[in-house]
## 1
Amino acid sequence: MSQIICGNVIETAKEYFQVNLTTSQAGIADATQATVDFGGSGTVQYDTKSNFDSSNDAYLLDSSSGVYLISFSVGLSSDAINTEVLEDAGAQVEVATDGSTFTGLFGASYRPNDDDGGAGGSVHLSGTSIYKATTATTKLRLAVIADTNGGDTYEVRRGVNANMQSLTFSTDTGHICYLSVVRIA
């Protein structure tokens, strides 16, 4: 008796990855770019290809010719609650086609006004883009930067509630900072 199987039943080619920041990353110096510390302060939720490079807070794409849907979300805030000092903030997914030299790929930014008087206390930035891999060494990571009024420090917040000063949800489980990668072709 013969059996005919059509398609990839197990779907071994599926590749998806998500890492969530589970501890806020505080004390980042004013106007200093920082890589989000997913390796030391995060938890990998999905990694079907086991390609997370925790020492570099980066994900190695599994295909040198795959097409990927990449998403990020990050919450940035003033370190000192009640001190509203954010003037500018940005986040970007960075790519290193050689595995180590990172450059900006796409991102989001925030500037509430053009003077020091109206600085904000926190901001949420997110974005999604499609990316076509071209090398077998391509890695992705998430970087942030913020300018504060008076040289104060800023932080990357782990959860939605942590990024709000007085309003909170009934549970404190909503991740605000993550990086997701899904191979779509």
## 2
Amino acid sequence: MNTLTPGGISSGQNEEFDKRYSARVPMGRMAKADDLVGALVFLASDASAYVSGQNLIVDGGLTAW
């Protein structure tokens, strides 16, 4: 089994929250829901047939520090 762990996703948070969160992310912004699509398609496709026990983190680099 594999998992997908997203970072913060922009969904109407107030401007101050967005600004402070984005300042902590190397990519400089919160994710859009569409930013997860490629990772989800990969995990759902045959391309990941031999991938097992992995946690794919899609967080703009937040946890890379």
